[in-house]
Amino acid sequence: MQWQKSSFSGVEGGNCVEVAHTEAHLLLRESDTPTDVLALPPLGLACLIRHIKAEQQR
To answer: DSSP letters along 11-39, please?
Structure first.
């Protein structure tokens, strides 16, 4: 499985969010804790992102 680092992580490296995919799920993890993985179907991830953005606008 190939993990891709978020473009928001910057050039310094360090802690960053990484994403990978399987046939059914998108996988998220932080680079400093790579064994902790959040697996979501694509619609579930879209809902999570919308929720986070809405909370940030409050």
So the answer is: SS-SS-EEEEE-SS-EEEEETTEEEEEEE
